[in-house]
Design a protein that fits this description.
Helix content: 55-70%
Number of domains: 1
Strand content: 5-15%
Radius of gyration: 19 Å
Structural class: alpha/beta
Length: 306
């Protein structure tokens, strides 16, 4: 189960890494995403002349997937403001992230990744980096959490998943072109610290199990993206959140539940302010009893699926 905790936690910050220049897209599609008739789940709250639309997102997507349904397009077009998790796409944010990731992700002087992992796990790490065409030695100064996420992101891009086609990148470009305001629910630093603050033994086990199970990543990712694109929220909740809930309640609280609770007052403030808002956050934050939709409903809001 830990492999899914690690993998799904990594998906939560892949968008951040995509904004730092650490990653470069490649093109190798395993699934014919062009055949998917996408209709991602979209919810709407209306109150006292204000409207908030809610869409779950994936930070990296294949070029061939057309996820823009008529409902999503209509909701976005009528919005005055786009709200995202954090600013990771602007030039200023990318410069900040270039400095922040090394600050949070480097080992103390004299400590190397290979010394932390031990010979067996580091040998597996070397094999995986060789497959991706990256020298393992480049990662020696890096803490296990950052090494694992970077490696996973590179693997995703080797499957043809492109940060430039991620929902946030696409919507941000359109919002700028249409003169919409863009707001953020949290900071990139706060997102990264969730993983950077993990105890070292958890980081090492995270990377070890990820390496053992890297071969299953493509099929698992296909299932997740298909569930999201077709609006299958039960499957999405099971794939993205279920394993985290079962295997590491503490990480689930930190990565998902606490942030969901933090975002509810922001969304209520949008309703109080008036106007039309489009909120686009990671797909795993929407479904389930701890998801944003359920939390808003618990506060008495009528949340309608479009």
């Amino acid at each position: 189960m830990l492999k899914n905790v690690i993998r799904n936690a990594g998906f939560a910050v892949l968008g951040l890494l995509a904004g730092t220049g650490l990653l470069s897209p490649e093109h190798s599609h395993a699934t014919d995403y062009a055949t998917i008739e996408a209709s991602p789940a979209l919810w709407t709250i209306e109150a006292d002349g204000a409207t908030v639309h809610l869409l779950g997102t994936f930070h990296l997507l294949p070029d061939a997937l057309n996820w823009r349904s008529d409902a999503v397009n209509a909701a976005f077009d009528e919005a005055d403001t786009l709200w995202l998790e954090a600013d990771v796409l602007s030039a200023e944010a990318q410069a900040q992230m270039q400095a922040l990731i090394p600050q949070l992700g480097l080992n103390p002087q004299g400590v190397t990744l290979s010394s932390l992992l031990g010979p067996d796990t580091y040998a597996a790490f070397e094999a995986q980096t060789a497959e991706l065409g990256v020298p393992a030695g480049n990662f020696e100064p890096v803490q296990p959490w950052l090494a694992g996420i970077t490696l996973g992101a590179m693997q995703l891009q080797s499957f043809g998943f492109n940060p430039a086609m991620g929902v946030e990148a696409v919507l941000s470009a359109q919002a700028n072109a249409q003169g919409k305001s863009i707001g953020y629910l949290e900071t990139a630093e706060g997102q990264l610290r969730i993983l950077a603050d993990l105890p070292m033994d958890i980081q090492i086990e995270w990377l070890r199990v990820s390496l053992d199970e890297m071969g299953d990543l493509r099929g698992e990712l296909d299932r997740m993206v298909t569930a999201w694109a077709t609006g299958d929220m039960d499957m999405l909740d099971s794939q993205v959140n279920g394993s985290i809930r079962d295997a590491s309640p503490e990480l689930y609280e930190a990565l998902m539940v606490n942030r969901n609770h933090d975002w509810v007052p922001h969304i209520e403030a949008m309703l109080a302010a008036g106007g039309t808002h489009f909120v686009a956050v990671g797909a795993g934050h929407m479904p389930g009893d701890d998801g944003v939709v359920a939390l808003l409903q618990a506060q008495g809001h009528t949340v309608t699926r479009r």
